[in-house]
Amino acid sequence: MAESVKVLPEDIQQLIDVYEWDMRTREGVQRFRELKAKSLPTVALDGDLMYESQIPMQEELAEEIRLRYHQKNMDGNHAS
Amino acid sequence: MPGNQKIQRYIYKTSGVCPAEIHLRVHEEILEDLCFVGGGCPGNSILVSRLLKGRCLPEIPELLRGIDCRQGTSCPDQLEQALTGIQNGTLQPADTFRTDVDTRKLDRVCLIGDLAGNSLALVDLLESAAGTAPDAFYCLGNLTGNSPQNEEVIRILKKKGVQAIQGEADWQYVQGTTPADWPKMSWKTRDYLTRVPQLLRFDLAGKKAIAFYGKYLQDLEGYSDYDPYSLELNMICGLSNFMQDESVFPALEAMTPQFDADLILFGQAGKWGHWHIGGKDIVAVGPAWDGHRLYFCLLNADGGTVQLKTTRLKPKREICPAK
């Protein structure tokens, strides 16, 4: 699953910070439970559980990230 | 640097590099083994390990010095700090939890759960369970509790040859951290509890099994997520909340191929249970006495299938519950 994130196009990589948790560790387990995830592997975006037990298509994941980025920027513009 | 003859194991918590820890084994100032764990490039770390294994500790630091990777440090730099710590004594040998191995050939094991210092319950259980002719008796702790019968429980366990496993209350007695109103314990009993294993390894009809009490092991000083059987502990105690959270069972199943053990017994759940997940058997060993009935369980693995037969008994005499 981590690979599907790592191979995203460069323009997408510049929009995101990627954190990977090792499920063998207590820290990974804690994060898994915080996200209320149920299965592995899991991808969350901005703390929202997005993909469980499935590896998203690169285009699908990239589109979701772009959408969230634009929504945030829109919110930012409105706020200003 | 400790001057004894045995191999010492060290765990160095890194800072600013990918691997979270460096595990080292040292014998008489010779680096016997080296492993970067928790991240980083496994190929490079294996190479570094192979190149440094067998070298004398004092000659290694100059090979590592001045190598920068990021944030002003690197894996070699962290390794140098670990070796310096070992040599000047600031890094102490790792001592996580005590593990014993029962090497007997076992097909049937009688399990007794949390006794909480109830010697009358123990006597009744052992008398009744003897009829099932197990190859071994295991008591998964707590052996002791807020009970005036603690010393008697330990005396019976020793006399009857019951393999005990240290529970959290037992550990608190060892550490001297039990609540102030709990009965005092003799030095001899406390010494016995100190030497009781915190994790027991055994084979049941060819199945690799481990038994432990519960979560307190994760809180022991030096506990590493990458130690043997830590994965099983983290999954049982942390992920599944002692198998009480069924929603995470799919994730648990995904992790089971990495388990070392085929059969995992634990005592902290507070009730009996048996799950077969991802080809692994997970058994919760419930309390010995619930205030009304006594419980023990016969575990066997006939034909490769783990079976658990729990027996509920009416006590032969009045059982005084632990406070």
Summarize the structure.
With 80 residues, chain A is mainly alpha-helical. Chain A has one domain (2-79).
How can the largest sheet of chain A be summarized?
2 strands, antiparallel
Tell me the number of helical segments of chain B per DSSP (H or I, 4 or more residues long): 9
The CATH architecture classification of the largest domain in chain B is: 4-Layer Sandwich
Remind me, CATH topology of the largest domain in chain B? Purple Acid Phosphatase, chain A, domain 2
Residue ranges of chain A: pLDDT <50 for 5 or more in a row?
none
Taken from the alpha-carbon principal axes, the silhouette of chain B is elongated
Order of helices and strands of chain A: HHHEEH
pLDDT under 50 segments of chain B (min length 5)? none
Q: What number of structural domains do the residues of chain B give?
A: 2
Question: Overview of this structure, please?
Answer:
The complex is a heterodimer of chains A (about 80) and B (about 325). Chain A is mainly alpha-helical and about 80 residues long. Chain A contains four helices and two strands; from the N terminus they run αααββα. Chain B has about 325 residues and is of the alpha/beta class. Chain B folds into two domains: about 80 residues, Enolase-like, domain 1 (2-Layer Sandwich), CATH 3.30.390.50; about 220 residues, Purple Acid Phosphatase, chain A, domain 2 (4-Layer Sandwich). Chain B is built from nine helices and 14 strands. In chain B, the strands form three sheets. Chain B has a six-stranded mixed sheet, with helices on one face. A five-stranded mixed sheet of chain B has the order 7-6-5-13-14, covered by helices on one side. Chain B has a three-stranded antiparallel sheet with strand order 1-2-3. The longest helix of chain B is centred in the first third of the chain and has 14 residues. The radius of gyration of chain B is 22 Å and the shape is elongated. At the A-B interface, helix 3 of A face helix 8 and helix 9 of B.
